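Translate structure to sequence.
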């Protein structure tokens, strides 16, 4: 269980941390875990400010909503 926690933290922060010395080798055939790790890497690299703006846009909380320049650049690159 603890190894899974460290893998998820490492994936979210893009830190490349590996305290076990095996990295994702134990999950070589587990495509579910690999998919989750890929998803966490993408979300972590996008960043929380962009995710918060996307959440506000999806929930339609602000009328005449406009994305910030930071969000535009981050999502296009």
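Result:
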């Amino acid at each position: 269980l603890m190894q899974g926690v460290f893998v998820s933290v490492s994936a979210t922060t893009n830190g490349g941390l590996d305290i076990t010395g095996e990295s994702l080798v134990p999950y070589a055939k587990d495509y579910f875990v690999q998919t989750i790790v890929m998803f966490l890497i993408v979300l972590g690299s996008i960043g929380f400010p962009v995710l918060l703006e996307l959440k506000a846009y999806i929930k339609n909380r602000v009328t005449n909503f406009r994305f910030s320049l930071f969000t535009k650049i981050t999502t296009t690159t």
